[in-house]
Amino acid sequence: MSDSLAERAREIGIRLCARHEGETIEYSTCPNNGCFDMCVLRQHVKDGRVTAIETDDSIHVGMGREDEYCDWKDIQEGMYQKRACVRGRGQRSDTYSPTRILYPMRRIGPKPSYEFERISWDEALDEIAALVKDTREEYGPLSVYSDGMQGGTWDPLGVHLPGGAIAMWGEDSYEPTNSADWFTYNYCTYQCIGEDGLSENQTFFDAKAIILVGFDAAVNYPETVYYLLMAKEKGIPIITIDPRYTWTAEAIGTQHIFIRPGTDLALFCAMSYVLFEEDLYDHEFCEKYVEPKGLSLWRDYVMGTDENGEAAKTPEWAEPITGIPAETIRELARFYASAKPCYIRMVWAAARQIYGKQAARGLNYLQVLGGNIGHNGCAGTGVGFSMSHHLMSPYLG
């Protein structure tokens, strides 16, 4: 480095250090919605304001590549840096935004005008509570919509909560998949942890293959990208299935399969057909954990042998629906059956459509046939959470 460049670098270093003089470090967790990982954040605070946010490095301090320097067992046990994404590290712009609402406001002008007046928190809470109470008394307990946190479609206690029981009917994220998990596993997945199953980033490294259906991690779950790339470097193939050629397909995937939007269920049915036809499904898992009648009903449905006379869900049947060549579907099913354990996950958004829960159920059944439930290297249930073996529902099918 020339003397002039060295001097320039020294000046920049001095200015950076001066900028952070007098700061304290305070810790918090990321409140941003979308990933649910709750990364730990190191916040630089000066004069009562957050001046910078960075990822916590109290684990493996100073290691840029943990897999190069630390015991691999640490990562498998979750002792690794939770590398916060730009949403978490950029939340200062939300906190100090000039348009941030800092106190309750009541509309005083006609809609859609922006005429509001400031009111107290007590006024706001009393007014909202009165409106909810009066509405429920006049129209019944299912008359008030909430944002999904006050009770769900399948929550029998929801009728006693402020939002009634219709919260999830119009919820923007995961109700179809939640319903599918209830149908398959007969238990609330958020309260279940698999016997040895993981659903965090480190489970990628135990997988023999990773299949992401509509799951553009580079956009939706950027905190996982670092670990997906590490898995890819370990030689774990990553297949992306999506109508779009996404950033994840471009930067992370080893193979991309295009599919027509909204046809995921047809793909899962055809893959299940191949698993049954070529006897590739996990007999031991199914015999131990799956109710026989449900398994038989699903087999009859996809094989075209049920009493309703449905067509067999062959790859050839699925090809004109999905746009995926029949031979590609067959090879994907065979690959899935041979790669055990397999991390296969469909993003919530793929089920956000009419009858979307059926696609989520199809994925769950495919995971069951592969025995990819409750083990390290698996995605858990449809929403990506682990599921204990003994909670397998008698209602499969």
Low-confidence stretches: 148-159, 163-170, 188-198, 383-397
Order of secondary-structure elements: HEEEHHHHEEHHEHHEHEHHHHHEH
Tell me the number of strands: 9
How far apart are the termini?
68 Å
Number of helices: 16
Mean of all residue-level pLDDT scores: 81
Sheet with the most strands, sense and barrel status: 4 strands, parallel
Lateral arrangement of strands in the main beta sheet: 8-7-6-9
**What coarse outline follows from CA principal-axis ratios?**
globular
Task: State which percent range the strand residues make up.
Answer: 5-15%
**Helix fraction bin:** 25-40%
Write down the Rg: 25 Å
Sheet/helix structural class: alpha/beta
Compact overview of the structure:
This protein is an alpha/beta fold and 397 residues long.
Descriptive account of the structure:
- The protein has 397 residues and is of the alpha/beta class.
- It contains 16 helices and 9 strands.
- The chain has helices at residues 3-19, 66-69, 72-76, 86-89, 92-95, 121-139, 175-185, 217-220, 225-233, 247-251, 264-277, 283-289, 292-303, 315-322, 326-338, 356-369; strands at 24-29, 40-46, 49-55, 105-107, 116-118, 209-213, 238-241, 255-257, 342-346.
- Strands 8-7-6-9 form a 4-stranded parallel sheet.
- A hairpin with an 8-residue loop joins β4 and β5 (116-118).
- α11 (264-277) runs antiparallel to α14 (315-322), α11 (264-277) packs parallel to α16 (356-369) and α14 (315-322) packs across α15 (326-338).
